[in-house]
Automatic annotation (TrEMBL):
This is Cupin domain-containing protein. It comes from Flagellimonas abyssi. Coiled coil: none annotated. The lineage of its organism: Bacteria, Pseudomonadati, Bacteroidota, Flavobacteriia, Flavobacteriales. InterPro entries: RmlC-like_jellyroll, RmlC_Cupin_sf.
Length: 112
């Protein structure tokens, strides 16, 4: 997994800043702060993120391809341009039945 910051004050095209890598999930940090983070993620076909539970809401936006998002065993298929909010404290898994790219945004403030 790759994890490098995007240069500030420089224009970029989000779908072009991250590449597919065979048999891998690639993560590129766009913004990382103590109050939350924004990452671009690419998934090769057949890859997934293992089930997890986050204490924060997570906003997912598909920027290329199609993803399967499982939230508490309920499956949703999202396509390019579609988004979903994974609620805090929910079991969730993100699967690539075909390759795709997404943006993940986690806001950690407001949970005090």
């Amino acid at each position: 997994m790759e994890n490098t910051d995007v240069e500030k004050s420089k224009v970029f095209i989000i779908v072009e800043i991250i590449e597919y890598v065979p048999n891998a999930v690639v993560i590129k940090t766009i913004i990382k702060k103590t109050t939350g983070n924004v990452t671009a993620v690419s998934f090769d076909s057949g890859e997934n993120l293992t089930e997890k539970i986050s204490p924060f809401d997570t906003f997912i936006q598909i920027i290329e391809g199609r993803a399967e998002i499982l939230i508490d065993d309920n499956s949703q298929t999202l396509e390019t341009g579609q988004s979903i909010i994974i609620p805090a404290h929910s079991r969730n898994t993100i699967k690539a039945n075909e390759r795709f790219k997404m943006i993940s945004t986690i806001i950690k403030s407001g949970y005090e």
